[in-house]
């Protein structure tokens, strides 16, 4: 008889992204795998006494990432600093062609709920959030729903 296969939770490996304005839209773009690994290793190192001063060189030395502030700054030309995120969870809106990373705080909440679902094998739970979003964890594939009524009410105001 084959023993029961227990669900094993494995945390996802984060990838780092930066936000950039393309035409009139803000788009999240991934750092290269090398830059993302370097950012993650620095993030996890905890060796520095002054975390607010940690800077990681990216894009072949053309940009610096201020890890504490989560900003990316061009070194050789004028450009507004852009937001940086350590990403593990993403969503895609109806009108979006790309996936958008959730904020780091929200991603931590989702990861905790996902871990609970995997380790207890309790799926089909509806997670309601104050923003009006509902996320249903049916199985290891997760569904995201936006509350239509909440969006309509905010347009009428």
| Strand line-up in the sheet with most strands | 2-1-6-5-4-3
Low-confidence stretches: 147-157
Q: Into which percentage range does the β-strand content fall?
A: 25-35%
Q: What's the total count of β strands?
A: 11
Number of domains: 2
Oligomeric status: single chain
Contiguous helical run count = 3
Q: Tell me, rounded to a whole number, the average pLDDT.
A: 84
Shape: globular
Radius of gyration over alpha carbons?
19 Å
Encode the helix/strand succession as letters: EEHEEEEEEHEEEH
- Do you know the CATH topology of the largest domain? Signal recognition particle alu RNA binding heterodimer, srp9/1
Classification by helices and strands: alpha+beta
Main sheet summary: 6 strands, antiparallel
Helix fraction? Answer: 10-25%
> Class of the largest domain, according to the CATH hierarchy?
Alpha Beta
Organism: Sinocyclocheilus grahami
InterPro entries: PA-PLA1, WWE_dom, WWE_SEC23-DDH2
Domain WWE: 1-86
Protein name: WWE domain-containing protein
Structure description:
Mean pLDDT is 84; it is low at 147-157. This protein is 25% helix and 32% strand. It folds into two domains: 10-87, Signal recognition particle alu RNA binding heterodimer, srp9/1 (2-Layer Sandwich), CATH 3.30.720; 102-157, no CATH class. The chain has 157 residues and is α+β, with helices and mostly antiparallel strands. It contains three helices and eleven strands, in the order ββαββββββαβββα. The termini are far apart. The strands form three sheets. A six-stranded antiparallel beta sheet has the order 2-1-6-5-4-3, with helices on one face.
